[in-house]
Specification:
The complex is a heterodimer of chains A (490) and B (308).
Chain A (H helix, E strand, L loop, with lengths): L15 E10 L2 E11 L4 E6 L5 H8 L7 E6 L8 H8 L1 E4 L11 H6 L10 H16 L16 H13 L8 E5 L7 H16 L3 E5 L3 H7 L2 E6 L2 E7 L5 H8 L6 H7 L8 E4 L5 E3 L3 E6 L5 H12 L11 E4 L3 H4 L7 H5 L4 H4 L7 H15 L15 H13 L5 E5 L7 H16 L3 E5 L3 H4 L4 E6 L2 E7 L5 H8 L8
Parallel strand pairs in A: 3-7, 3-8, 5-6, 6-7, 12-15, 12-16, 13-14, 14-15
Antiparallel strand pairs in A: 1-2, 1-4, 8-9, 10-11, 16-17
Helix pairs in contact in A: 4-5, 15-16
Chain B lengths: L1 H24 L6 H8 L2 H16 L7 H18 L1 H25 L3 H19 L9 H7 L8 H19 L1 H11 L1 H6 L4 H27 L10 H11 L11 H20 L4 H28 L1
Helix pairs in contact in B: 1-13, 1-14, 3-8, 3-11, 3-12, 3-13, 4-5, 4-6, 4-11, 4-12, 5-11, 7-11, 8-9, 8-13, 12-13, 13-14
Classes of the chains: A alpha/beta (490), B mainly alpha (308).
């Protein structure tokens, strides 16, 4: 632990101390043996790949999640049972990516919501003054009126309001402000104002936990940098001890498994280009194209746009051009009340219904053959789909797509919550299908899946940041492209 | 602020257009007595619309407003008239029941539309039990209150505006109202800030119950008798009134003045169709057509606003 950078005049007692904190959601260990001490005057930069446990750590610190093991201690007088109350009493505030404002209320009314003990007499005047002060303090020269309705503001202005509320003077002073990707929707000048305010706030004795994938910002404000990987804190040192590449090194490198190296990467001949999107995404017949990058950087949207551009609007096509494999099974995959058989035959239904009625015999044959081909573990295909495990449900969704004649298969992170055995089966199947000339577009947040691809597009902020082929596809190069690396600019 | 004003502009314009059309068809309506007759039944409709607005404010919908108002009217015409103490106790219990429903819906995560649909049969059944055939009598003070002769402008016009003003102060200006609107705006944010959404939803439902009771009482004051089916139409009228007045089904966007104006517009639409000498068989359909027309115009407005 390194907490030598305490600002002048600050209370030296740490704001929050985590000791060996574990957090698990069922079998998933989101946080393992995390120990962290946040002292006043320190700005901690928190970095890590998708699912490394950054948000879980932030949520444990602000008390929204109760740790399953370990100790969380806050500064301040008598601790009570609930962490969220303790965190609130200690002055811990947080700003999250999903906006937590009420769009139907005005800016000043939104301050009333977290400020629960606001004086009741002429509260509007108090709220307007405090909101104005907070906005002026963090974003001098802003043009947000406290009486504007939040729904009428731009996304950037809403983000500014949310940040200002976190730094606002309420019933108690803020002691630790957690900022999760706060600059994602701010332009450079406004982001700079925020960074400047963070520096001022920390030198006045406040603490900040700053989560960002913008390396430049991390290095600019942090006095300490914490790197997380697979739910563990792997590095925790003064910012000077790091370079950009040493951070990337600390974040990544899952050792590639020996058997994947020879299989997927053998060179093959590809057919003509059959997919080309406006943003530069393209794919050839027989190719497996990966969409990589941090979660939520426009990969799913790019796939959805591609799919809907090629899908017929009114009349179902007998031979669809593109089929879709959903990753969020519950939202856009399974029909929860239908049987396995019905779920599997959904896309191919027009083939079995030459006129109006469905040819049940042909449907059952096809489903039976896919059950054997893909290994769906069930005794009776008429059982409801929800009787299957998550992995087997996903196999049904794969079979639904592959049973069609569509030359292009779009996959939106399809392996979410699927066990390793099933994954191996599916990888093999995708490779076989690709060898027969099908083209796959595969968005995945897992590096070992991306390593299966022939070509990879790395997305950042909705744009394609890099295109990698063959030997260039390594975890390191993907990480480099997903995180902003503006070394040349500085 | 600007978008809120724009939301209010359309209901006011539709009311003005409709009023102009009525005055054109029947110039004699342009008098103290005429206005009183035109808007006579607007007071209970406005109160029922406010009740519905409280529910829509927290992203729910209440399909039992009509039967609840009928039930309250039946209680007013019987118990409140005969044994006032017991009568008021029943009405107070009904309000508490409404609040309890709100808490239940939040606690168990039930869909409000199903719960209130079920409750509509409960209220309807109770109303029939209390008053199997039309009858009863209005308490004297209610009859006097509703028949009040106010100077210059008739009470049927003043009362809805007063109701709107009071609710506006309560919901739009006071901090309690802001917190209640927050539930519709972003429920998770409210939870995170430490507010008890169960209590807030119960409060919103309790307020709806209160305004439902007031609607039932006013209705009896006007008609001087009650019937178990007296206010069945109020369910749809109240929903239409809230939406007509610039409210939205989700997102906690509501306007008390808009809701009351919406209620007035709908009442006036019925009179307008009578003045047109349209056969009563066609009136409900024509009322629906007016509603669709106004809402379509609003959609165009909002699209333009979003594009700008």
């Amino acid at each position: 632990m390194d907490d030598t950078e305490i600002g002048p005049g600050a209370d030296p007692a740490p704001v929050v101390t985590l000791e060996q904190v574990h957090m698990s959601f069922g079998p998933v260990h989101a946080l393992q043996a995390a120990s962290l001490m946040i002292s006043p005057g320190v700005c901690i930069g928190l970095v890590g790949h998708n699912g490394a446990g950054k948000s879980t750590l932030a949520n444990v610190i602000n008390g929204r999640l109760a740790q399953t093991q370990g100790q969380v201690q806050y500064r301040g007088e008598d601790p009570v049972q609930r962490n969220s109350q303790n965190a609130h009493n200690a002055g811990v505030r947080s700003v999250f990516q999903e906006l937590s404002l009420c769009p139907n209320l005005t800016v000043l009314e939104n301050l009333r919501i977290p400020y629960r003990t606001m004086p009741r007499r002429s509260w509007r005047r108090v709220a307007r003054q405090k909101m104005q002060d907070a906005l002026d303090l963090v974003f001098p020269g802003h043009s947000i009126r406290p009486r504007a309705t939040v729904g009428d503001l731009t996304i950037a202005e809403r983000q500014m309001v949310e940040i200002a509320i976190a730094f606002a003077d309420r019933d108690r002073e803020p002691s630790l402000v957690i900022l999760d990707e706060p600059t994602s929707s701010l332009d450079a000048a406004i982001a700079q104002q925020l960074l400047d305010h963070i520096k001022r706030f920390c030198s006045a004795g406040g603490a900040v936990l700053f989560i960002s994938h913008m390396m430049g910002e991390i290095f600019e404000v942090s006095t300490r940098i914490v790197v997380m990987k697979d739910g563990k804190i792997v590095e925790d040192q003064a910012a000077q001890a790091f370079t950009r590449s040493s951070i990337v090194d600390a974040m990544g490198h899952v050792a590639p498994e020996a058997d994947t190296a020879d299989n997927g990467l053998s060179r093959r001949e590809f057919g003509p280009e059959i997919v080309r999107a406006a943003n530069g995404l393209n794919a050839r017949a027989g190719e497996i194209v990966g969409l990589a990058g941090l979660a939520g950087h426009g990969q799913a949207e790019a796939l959805a746009r591609l799919f809907f551009d090629h899908a017929p609007k009114w009349k179902p096509a007998r031979e669809p051009e593109v089929v879709f494999v959903a990753g969020d099974r519950a939202r856009d995959g399974v029909m929860p009340l239908w049987s396995i058989l019905r779920n599997l035959s959904l896309t191919t239904l027009p083939e079995f219904s030459p006129r109006v009625m469905v040819d049940r015999g042909r449907e059952a044959n096809l489903v039976q053959s896919w059950k054997e081909k893909i290994g769906i573990r069930t005794e009776n295909l008429l059982n409801p789909i929800l009787s299957l495990s998550g992995g087997n449900q996903q196999k049904v969704l794969f079979a639904r797509a592959l049973a069609s004649t569509a030359p292009v298969v779009v996959m939106d992170d399809p392996m979410r919550g699927v066990d390793v055995g099933t994954k191996k089966d599916v990888y093999q199947m995708i490779r076989d299908e690709a060898a027969h000339g099908r083209c796959f577009l595969w968005y995945s947040t897992e590096t070992d899946e991306i390593l299966e691809c022939d070509r990879v597009f790395v997305f950042r902020a909705g744009q394609i940041a890099a295109e990698l082929t063959g030997d260039e596809i390594t975890e390191e190069s993907i990480l480099h492209a997903s995180f902003e690396m503006q070394e040349a600019a500085e | 602020m600007t978008s809120d004003r724009l939301r209010l502009l359309l209901p006011m314009m539709s009311l003005a257009v409709l009023l102009g059309a009525v005055f054109y068809l029947q110039p004699r309506a342009m008098s103290y007595f005429g206005l009183n007759l035109l808007f006579n039944l607007a007071i209970p409709v406005a109160l029922a619309t406010i009740a519905q607005m409280m529910i829509i404010m927290v992203n729910d919908i209440d399909l039992s407003v009509g039967t609840f108002v009928s039930f309250c009217a039946c209680v007013t015409a019987t118990f409140v008239h005969d044994t006032p103490l017991l009568g008021y106790a029943i009405l107070a219990t009904a309000i508490l029941a409404y609040a309890a429903l709100g808490a239940l819906i939040q606690l168990r995560g039930l869909p409000a539309i199903v719960v209130t649909l079920g409750m509509s049969f409960v209220w309807g059944g109770l109303a029939v039990l209390i008053l199997p055939s039309p009858g009863g009598a209005s308490p004297e003070w209610l009859k006097t209150l509703m028949g009040l002769k106010t100077p210059l402008i008739p009470i049927a016009v003043i009362a809805p505006l007063v109701i709107a003003l009071v609710v506006h102060l309560l919901i739009k200006r006071s901090w309690v109202g802001v917190i209640l609107q927050g539930v519709g705006g972003n429920e998770r944010a409210m939870e995170r800030a430490g507010w008890s959404v169960v209590r807030l939803r119960a409060a919103a439902y309790g307020l709806a119950g209160l305004f439902g009771v007031l609607a039932g009482m006013c209705l009896v004051g006007l008609t001087t008798a009650a019937d178990a089916n007296i206010a069945l139409r109020y369910t749809l009228l109240s929903i239409a009134g809230v939406i007509l007045g610039g409210g939205e089904f989700v997102g906690g966007r509501i306007s008390p003045f808009g809701a009351v104006i919406g209620a007035l517009t709908l009442t006036l639409a019925a009179s307008f169709l009578s003045f047109l000498r349209l056969s009563p068989d066609w009136q409900i359909g024509a009322q629906g057509a007016i509603l669709i027309l106004v809402l379509a115009v609003r959609l165009l407005f909002l699209r333009k606003e979003a594009a700008a």
